[in-house]
Every structure is written in structure tokens, then in C-alpha cells.
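Is adenosine-5'-diphosphate placement plausible here? Inputs below.
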Amino acid sequence: MPEVIRQLPENVANQIAAGEVIQRPASAVKELMENAVDAGASRIDVRVVDAGRTLIHVMDNGVGMIEADAKRCFGRHATSKITSADDLFTILSKGFRGEALASIASIAHVELKTHHASDECGIQLNMEGGVLAQETPVAMELGTQIAVRHLFFNVPARRNFLKSDAVEMRHVIDEFHRVALAHEAIHFTLTHNDSELFDLRPSTLRKRILSVFGSKYDERLVPVEESTDVVGVKGFVGKPAFARRTRGEQFLFVNQRFIKHGLIHRTIMNAYEGLLPPGQYPLYVLFLIIDPARLDVNIHPTKTEIKFDEDQHIQSLLLPSIRRGLGKHAVAPSLDFDQESSLNIAPLPKDHVVAEPVVQVNTDYNPFQPKAASDGSSGGSSGGSSGRRVAAWTRPNGCVEIAL
Ligand code: ADP
Ligand code: MG
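Reply from A.M.:
I modeled the complex. C-alpha cells:
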């Protein structure tokens, strides 16, 4: 019996792995944008042609790579972001698996240009199906430019799975939004077939949301911000009146990473209980800030799922803080769980002397000698339809007091 087990060539292994990481042009856009964010860029320009089928070009002004790193970055599990598995529990970068560039390079034609400050000029590498085809020095600004052409050129099955340009472009825009919303201080642009779709200047989160969705969203947003020792939440939720039938405007980030988390989504929806008809979804752009030691980010190849140490902490902060936010903006009854209103008395000034209360007694008062009350009632009683007895009398200063 001949041996049947053989080691797959690295390139084939990369193509198979690529299936998990890169499902469509939008996945490549996400990975390249995240690499640019991790490289500390303050400006990231994304250009796609034919919804990314023909070209995805991402240009950043981040740190760039020295020549040796540029040659290494396409290797499987090649990363500068972690050195041991323990590092995963302190990680704040987007990437850590060292898979994206290896995957993309194995299923496309990739041209990388990069220039690091410690090199005199940049370097250009051309990869074809994961193999280095050409290498040349290049004059360029500091930073990195990656052009991905003919995605899935060697994986026709994948190519056939792609939808129309309109659908694929929708996915590209979704990924672009997810990265851009999480990094409002970075300048992003997105161009499709020579028309610029977004030019998002550095701004506050509120303004970034408006420049992504349109200025009419200004009146729809309710700010949310609270924290405990374990977890912080900040961001915006939408007023219920503007909820939609689709979930497209729901963004949850954990330590600036866009994630999908059913339980947290349900917690957010619970905060709207009684405020929305069934089948309506409110907008939310919420950021959870959690010690990375309490998270496991490595549970899915696309890094969009996450496991929390203690889900309960998050739920018990999130639900009341959203309800409070909605309450403050008079769109929901506010449930103030922390504050007992009867204790809400302003403290006295430091040197204030508290006077002893004086009880004033009218020694001439005779309850059997009714005076004419100013409201015309006499005898200290008036019959109401409720049958409640109301006594009225006049104090020496002329005020009428009514005792129930
Ligand atoms: P990961 O992001 O998980 O580390 P990638 O395959 O996406 O893996 O990238 C491999 C390495 O290439 C990164 O760790 C980083 O050092 C380098 N790199 C990728 N893109 C850029 C970029 N735009 N600027 C600088 N370095 C980059
Ligand atoms: Mg990466």
C-alpha cells in the first residue's frame, strides 16, 4: 500500500486558509484598512474598481516596513504584533494572526510599495499567487501602498460565489464604515470607479457618524457614556422613532474592534423594550472598553467574534446606561438605579449654622369659634364629592392653611 499522506505545499495551505479570512473583496478591504490603522496611519485612502473584483488599493501614511520586513510580511503566520500566545490577552492591535497578507497574496496579484523612515527609499514587491515575481526600489513617501488585483484569479469557485457589483460594493462600504467609525481621528477616503464616495476628515465621534450617515442623523442620536471598574461604554444610540426594519445601522465595538455578539445585541434591544414595535431595529454605535485580559479575541479567523470573561458585568452596565440615555432625552422613562432621589439634597455651605426650629403656637386659637374663611367656607368643614373632610383656618398672618 503506497503512502497516502503528504504535506500540502505552503501555497495550497494558504489558499485554503484564505477561504476563512477572505470571502469577498470586502474582507480584503477590511484586512488592509486594519493593517494601515495598526501601522499608526493618520490618513488612509481606499480605492476599488468593479467593487474590488478588479482592484483594491489601500494607501496609508503609517510607519511603513523596512525592506526585510516587507519581504517577510507575506509569509504564513508572519506578524509583528505578537510574539507569544499570551500576548493575545494584552492585545489592542487589530491584527495578530499573521494570515491576511499571506491569504490575499495566495489568491490575487499583489503589488506592495512601502517605505520606512530608516530606509533611504521604498521597496516595491510584486507577488503572483503567493510567489515573489519582482522586487524594485521605489521613490515614495513614508507609508505603505498595497494594490490587490484580480482577486480569486486562481480560485474560480470563489469567484463564482461573488454577487453583483452592487451587493459586493455594499459589503465594501459596510467594512469601510466599521473601520472609519472606530477611528474618528483618522482621515479616510473611499473611491469607487473614480467617484469618491466618502471623504471623512478627522473629527469627533458624533461628527464622524454624521459624515457617514448624513447630517439629518444629528437629531436621532442619544449619547451614552458610563463606566465601572471592569467595563466602560460610550457612544450613541438612536431614538426609537427612527428605528428601521433592518439591522444595518448597528455597530458594536470592543476596544475599537467591530464585533458581532448576540447576547450584547439582545441586551441593547432589551433597553428599548416597550419603545419599539416588533421587527424594528434602533441605530447604535457603541464602544465597550474592557481590559484585554478579560477577552478572548482569537475565537474566529475574521476576528469579528469575541468571548468575554464575564458577560454579566457588561449587561448590567449596558442596559441601565442606555435606558438612562434614552430617559435623559425624554424618549423613555428613565430608570435611575443608582440614585435615591430623597437623598438627593445639596450639602449645606461649610460655615452654615443650622437654627433650631421654633414651634409657633397661637394661644388664642379656639376651634369652637370659627372665623369667616377667605374662601367662604365656614365651620372648618366642607363636604366634597369625595367625602374627604377638609379643615381650613386662618393663621394670624392671614394665610389660609388647609389640612387634609
Ligand atoms: P497581522 O496584521 O495579523 O499581523 P497581516 O498578514 O495582516 O498580519 O500583516 C503581516 C505584517 O505585515 C503585520 O504584522 C505588519 O508588521 C506588516 N504590515 C502589514 N500591512 C502593513 C502596513 N500597511 N503598514 C506597515 N506594516 C504592515
Ligand atoms: Mg493584518
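Short version: The pocket of adenosine-5'-diphosphate (ligand 1) is lined by residues 31, 35-36, 39, 60, 62-65, 73, 78-81, 95-102, 144 (CB under 6 Å).
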